[in-house]
Design goal:
Layout (H helix, E strand, L loop, with lengths): L22 E14 L3 E8 L2 E8 L9 E10 L14 E12 L16 H6 L1 H4 L3 H22 L4 E2 L17 E3 L7 E3 L5 H9 L4 E9 L11 E10 L3 H20 L8 E3 H8 L13 E2 L16 E7 L8 H13 L6 E8 L2 E5 L8 H11 L6 E7 L1 H16 L10 E5 L4 E4 L5 E3 L12 H6 L11 E6 L2 E8 L4 H11 L3 H15 L6 E7 H9 L29 H7 L9
Parallel strand pairs: 3-5, 6-9, 11-17
Antiparallel strand pairs: 1-2, 1-4, 2-3, 4-5, 7-8, 9-10, 10-22, 12-13, 13-16, 14-15, 14-16, 17-20, 18-19, 20-21, 21-22
The structure holds aspartic acid (ASP).
Aspartic acid binds next to β21 and β22.
Length: 585
């Protein structure tokens, strides 16, 4: 691509031996400077394509990060000074003219990739941080992913529709960010947690296939994979089953992965939520590695060993190939499992016994010979392996062993390839909350499986067995996103509202406009949304999404660059009809 402008003929990092003898002008930042004697200096000038060595033979004031324009002749370096680590290492520019375009204070931190700089300082000076190779690579990779995803949706007939930012609340279940209204003091807009209701309206409006890379805002505690504001590929389609949704989203995601890695992922396996919980102890299994949870409950029915007298016993095995754990490490693991809610963690080494592999150490002495050999067989354990068992109520066993599995076996973020997985048949309700009301696992417009509609009328614990037509896309143990087929039958929608205890008044106040729209011919529809930040982070091999966002907030939700959030002056508050209370003591 020709990137020449009125100020430059070439890009620093693109000059090669083929340019030998040409007169060129390059612009950029002073990356490094090496003085040789009184006047002679080697200046590395940098733009986003790389650096080029400029030989300056006159007095100059150039310092680190000054912005300069250099004109000169490209020449080959003498063979013994060529730098094979550098794309431009065979040549240099013999500079005839230097123009300083901007001076610069010394940078707040070194711009090499080796120095570990405190994140708050990086974010405070993000414009300097961005000049580094890692940020340049990540932000450009992000743009590549955005455009591949857009293309992927558009080539499947999706139409981009933009939806508003100042809206009434959406039902994703997180806390809203709100914006006070000046025209109606005391009233507030909510910022969208997602475009959920609008995309459903688009379906009723006959758009057929909607998509948008939408900004979503949720006031939740921040983590490595969560920011207040994030970008979602948001999609909705009419006259579909969940199979259709899987096909289009897999296509768009495969486009993104191919654009970055050059290889098109073809495998998007499926697993039910139930199976994911039983085998991986998680609804977002990291399938880059094995170490699956093995069912041991039948072995322990009628056991004498008190610790294993529980409604569920499961175990995992750590291979001998993995570095052995020290006693201190094991004690720390036991404590960690207790923090996760387990009463304890039973661990045993597998040794060479007189009659084949046997269990040694820890609680092994409480097991009968038969129980020991059955545990070894079930876990397919060999001498040198270690086994970990948890006995408790089933949900807890799965939860604790699921976390332990990650702790012991999870590869670094940039290893193990891209393992996509569709998790299907999520339960409609997570638990039965206080007062007997079920807690929805998704938003209240999620369609239950037709075979389970009868359970809705049974109520009570039967509700926990209702499967929904809701699904997640998981990549390497990260939840990329979720979606569902929506309810378009008023009788089912009303039943769900009843079960959730959302009365007529609340329905009308919160979603009245959507319910009204449903009366005017609502086609069956369903959709999906996935987090672009997470997808980009995984494709970039980053474990923190802040590394792929140009201007993120810190973990505590503040912005060291602009200082947001900041107080608002009294006059502005008056106009909005607001008063700020003194901080609670
Ligand atoms: N609106 C949902 C979310 O943001 C996704 C969907 O159901 O399409 O999680």
């Amino acid at each position: 691509m020709d990137l020449s402008t009125s100020l430059r003929t070439d890009m620093c990092g693109q000059l090669t031996a083929a340019d030998d003898g040409r007169t060129v002008t390059v612009c950029g930042w002073v990356d490094r400077r090496r003085e040789h004697g009184e006047h002679l200096a080697f200046i590395d000038l940098r733009d986003y394509t790389g650096v080029v060595q400029c030989v300056v033979d006159e007095k100059h004031d150039l310092r680190s990060e000054f912005v300069a324009r250099m004109t000169g002749t490209v020449r080959r370096r003498p063979d013994d000074t060529a730098n094979t680590n550098l794309a431009t290492g065979e040549i240099e520019i013999d500079v005839a003219d230097i123009e300083i375009l901007a001076e610069a204070e010394p940078p707040p931190f070194p711009l090499d990739e080796r120095t570990d700089v405190d994140e708050t300082i990086r974010l405070r000076h993000r414009y300097v941080d961005m000049r580094k190779e890692r940020m340049q690579r990540n932000l450009r990779l992000r743009a590549t992913v955005n455009s591949a995803v857009r293309r992927g949706m558009e080539e499947q007939g999706f139409v981009e529709v933009e939806t508003p930012m100042l809206i009434a609340s959406t039902p994703e279940g997180a806390r809203d960010f709100v914006v006070p209204s000046r025209k109606e003091p005391g009233s507030f807009y909510a910022l969208p947690q997602s475009p959920q209701l609008f995309k459903q309206l688009c379906m009723i409006g006959g758009i057929d296939r909607y998509y948008q890379i939408a900004r979503c805002l949720r006031d939740e505690d921040l983590r490595a994979d969560r920011q207040f504001e994030f970008m979602q590929l948001d999609a909705e389609m009419t006259f579909v089953s969940q199979e259709d949704v899987f096909a289009v989203i897999s296509h768009a995601v495969a486009n993104a992965a191919e654009a970055v890695t050059g290889e098109r992922p073809t495998e998007f396996p499926r697993i039910t939520w139930q199976e994911a919980q039983e085998r991986f102890g998680s609804d977002k299994p990291d399938t880059r590695f094995g170490m699956e949870l093995v069912e041991l409950t039948p072995i322990f029915t009628g056991t004498e060993a008190r610790v294993f007298q529980a409604s569920c016993v499961k175990g995992i095995k750590m291979d001998a190939g993995v570095e052995a754990l020290s006693r201190n490490q094991i004690d720390a693991l036991v404590e960690t499992c207790q923090r996760w809610g387990a009463k304890g963690l039973a661990w045993m080494k597998v040794i060479d016994g007189d009659d084949g592999p046997a269990l040694d150490a820890g609680v092994a002495k409480f097991l009968s010979a038969d129980e020991s050999s059955q545990v070894i067989a079930a876990l397919d354990a060999a001498p040198g392996d270690m086994v970990f068992l948890v006995a408790d109520e089933r949900r807890l066993v799965r939860h604790v062993l699921g976390l332990l599995r990650l702790e012991l076996g999870r590869p670094p973020v940039n290893e193990g390839g891209l393992n996509f997985l569709w998790v299907v048949d999520f339960p409609l309700f997570e638990t039965i909350g206080d007062g007997g009301k079920p807690v929805p696992a998704h938003h209240p417009f999620t369609m239950p499986h037709e075979e389970d509609w009868g359970l809705l009328d049974e109520g009570g614990d039967a509700l926990l067995d209702v499967r929904s037509q809701a699904y997640d896309l998981v990549l390497n143990g990260w939840e990329l996103g979720s979606g569902s087929i929506r309810i378009n039958r008023p009788d089912i929608q009303n039943r769900i509202f009843e079960l959730l205890g959302i009365g007529q008044e609340e329905r009308q106040a919160k979603f009245g406009f959507l319910l009204d729209a449903f009366r005017f011919g609502a086609p069956p529809h369903g959709g999906f949304a996935f987090g672009m930040d997470r997808l980009v982070a995984l494709l970039a091999g980053e474990s923190n999404i802040r590394e792929v966002i140009a201007f993120p907030k810190t973990q505590s939700g503040s912005d060291p660059l602009t200082n947001a959030p900041t107080p608002v002056d009294a006059a502005h508050l008056d106009e909005l009809g607001l008063r700020v209370l003194p901080p609670a003591t």
